């Protein structure tokens, strides 16, 4: 009888240990985290964009919010027949504009700004820029293109924005 009790206790112990190992392996705390190839970028925007952002902040004098790096799919939506949605969504999903100025009270987008550096002269970028301009024209959102520079004239930026508003 002692032998049978020892065998039962041994089996019960093995079962409990297996349950604990399973629980540690398959619960959130015990699960191994996958190795991911992601790292935090040192800078959210480029130096040129940061320089322009600072000038833009001065130009709008706190009247609006500025959002950098905004995807087109965050600004516009697709309304087509079911079978065509993904096709048109894909065209805007990975495209972004450098800055969007929005109303403070309701975050309504007022103006998108592209900072044009020399990459905007490349053939594929010209095609992309034309597409973005057409989308913004279609939805009634103004798009302002500003040449990338080492310094910016705050008064000129303010005047350019006021001409649009």
What does this protein look like?
The chain is α+β, with helices and mostly antiparallel strands. It has one domain (47-164). Helix content is 48%, strand content 18%. It has a 4-stranded mixed β-sheet with strand order 1-2-3-4, with helices on both faces. Helix 2 packs across helix 6. The longest helix is centred in the first third of the chain and has 25 residues, at 2-26. It is elongated. The mean pLDDT is 88.
Keywords:
single chain, 165 residues, alpha+beta, four-stranded mixed sheet, 6 helices, 48% helix, 18% strand
Question: What is the straight-line distance between the termini?
Answer: 93 Å
* Total beta strand runs: 4
Instruction: Give Rg in angstroms.
Output: 28 Å
Number of domains: 1
